[in-house]
Specification:
Layout: E1 8-14, H1 21-33, E2 39-45, H2 52-62, E3 66-71, H3 77-87, E4 92-95, H4 107-116, E5 121-128, H5 134-151, E6 162-165, H6 166-174, H7 182-189, E7 193-199, H8 212-226, H9 229-257, H10 265-298, E8 305-310
Parallel strand pairs: 1-2, 1-4, 2-3, 5-7
Antiparallel strand pairs: 3-8, 4-6, 5-6
Helix pairs in contact: 1-2, 5-8, 9-10
């Protein structure tokens, strides 16, 4: 069992959560207090435009453990998580959403598994996706299936709801990617890990922030961050095209040798369409990887902090 003074950091990325953020932070703080550990509640406003920052500021008056960061614009959830973990000083850090779909009541159990059983990573895994729309559930499951197969890491029903030991946080911060995929990178880091399961409760207000487009972008980031398999698909497409071309060439020579008329226009058009399609797909896949290289070599920060509030505030 770990001994000595312990501190817990709770990282809560928030975007457009103005109407419900005060209630959410109250529940999260209550769950953190029940662990009996000193803690800090790091809330990252990811460039919200709906009064989220003002609500966080008011909540900080009655929850002294709050340390609030306001990003200069919307950098996305991955950037907000990075900002929170960079600020975290605890011996363990818990990351969870601000909409209470990651149940704060699980925090004490996650802390117990970390302290008593010495797990380095405690992952929240969805056992029931709640009232999620059937179409959204289908797309989500397809995303996790594809990401798991292509990355080699089991991400099925995974979430960003995690407890990370200080060593894991330090290693995560050492990773050099500008465009991150939090749950995939934590899986890649390894360490001793266990799981806790939860049913997704209804959102306190509003609807899901995840559209088909945002899920598609997340899938592209996940796959290109951990696998070069799509580039190998380009090679496979080239080999298939070569084999089909060789087969058609043999057929054409056989017909010519037998003095038969060669099928012309239709075959040529189909071949051109097939080869053109393969070329466009291949260029698209290569272009995605070139774009990722372009993003990385620019070396821009993952986020920019506009202002802070709380016990470590400098503004």
């Amino acid at each position: 069992m770990r001994t000595g003074p312990l501190q817990l950091s709770i990282v809560v990325p928030a975007y457009q959560e103005g109407p419900a953020i005060a209630e959410s932070l109250g529940q999260i703080a209550a769950a953190a207090r029940s662990t009996t550990l000193p803690f800090e509640l790091i809330v990252v406003d990811d460039g919200s435009q709906d009064g989220t920052w003002n609500a966080i500021d008011l909540a900080a008056e009655r929850i002294p453990e709050i340390v609030a960061l306001r990003l200069s614009r919307n950098f996305g959830k991955e950037g907000a998580i990075a900002a929170g973990l960079d600020m975290a000083s605890g011996d363990a850090s818990v990351v969870l959403d601000a909409d209470l779909q990651h149940p704060p009541a699980l925090i004490p159990e996650m802390v117990r598994l970390w302290r008593e059983d010495e797990w380095d990573v405690v992952e929240g895994v969805k056992s029931d996706r709640g009232d999620e729309a059937a179409s959204h559930r289908l797309v989500t499951r397809a995303f996790y299936w594809l990401a798991s197969r292509l990355t080699g890491h089991d991400l099925q029903d995974a979430s960003d709801f995690k407890l990370l030991d200080r060593r894991v946080v330090d290693e995560w911060r050492q990773l050099g990617e500008r465009v991150t995929f939090f749950r995939g990178l934590v899986s890649w880091l390894g360490f001793r890990r266990t799981q806790v399961f939860f049913a997704v409760p209804p959102r306190q207000s509003g609807g899901s922030r995840w559209s088909l487009g945002s899920l598609t972008r997340l899938a592209v980031h996940a796959v290109t961050s951990f696998s070069a398999l799509p580039l190998q698909i380009v090679t496979v497409l080239g080999m298939v095209t070569l084999l089909v071309g060789a087969a058609l060439a043999i057929q054409a020579l056989r017909l010519w040798y037998n003095g038969e008329a060669l099928p012309g226009f239709t075959t040529v058009i189909l071949l051109e369409l097939m080869i053109g399609g393969f070329l466009m797909i291949s260029l698209g896949i290569i272009g995605i990887y070139i774009a990722r290289i372009y993003d990385e070599v620019k070396g821009r920060p993952r986020y920019v902090v506009r202002e802070t509030r709380g016990k470590r505030s400098t503004t």
